[in-house]
Amino acid sequence: MGVVVLLLAGCAAKSVQRNVVLDSSSGKGLVVISVSHDRVGSRGMVGTFYMDRKNGLSDMTMLRTLGEAFPGVVKGSQFKDSYGQVLVLELAAGKHSMDSWRAARQAGYEITPSVDPSPLEFEVVAGSIQYLGNLHLNMESGKNAVGLTVIADAYPEVRDMRARDIALVEKIYPQFKDSISINLLPLGPWSAERGNTRFISPLFYPVTK
Q1: 172: enclosing H helix or E strand
Q2: What pTM was estimated for this model as a whole?
Q3: Is residue 11 included in any domain, yes or no?
Q4: What is the mean pLDDT of residues 34-44?
Q5: Is 4 a residue whose pLDDT tops 50?
């Protein structure tokens, strides 16, 4: 008997090095985006937003509301009113998109859209840095069969949190002070047509030879 581990392809997004500089000849630009979820979700719940998934699972990038300080050890939040982080990403010039999302607990409980929502598209300009907004997961709590409070559903939205996010970025990257342009993703709820799916997915299952 063996086991098959279910893994998602793609890579987790990480911010660029502190000494990064803008270079139009590189064919790349920088985007600033924050990702977060309600505090009711606790640190045990991690939201994930998928970028450029339409190009294939191996090419997609995952933006997680809480990154890892070490393998298996979740970082603290950068925000006081929610769990989340600001990311400064280097991307190839051209069109990109946010394609879907997921909310999951370590125990395997997941909430995903039943059908992917319409993609949130944006364009990267070589040698520039722009702020796209805040992707936030609103958590809805409820009671389970034994009366315990659990996360019953999640609803993503795009918010303009430039005052908070850009201030954090300029502390870490002072070279970009007063040079970040604003190019917001469409603000408001980012909803799917057929609602969400909630299920418990196994981390692995037995396979018999």
Answers
A1: helix 162-172
A2: 0.85
A3: no
A4: 87
A5: no
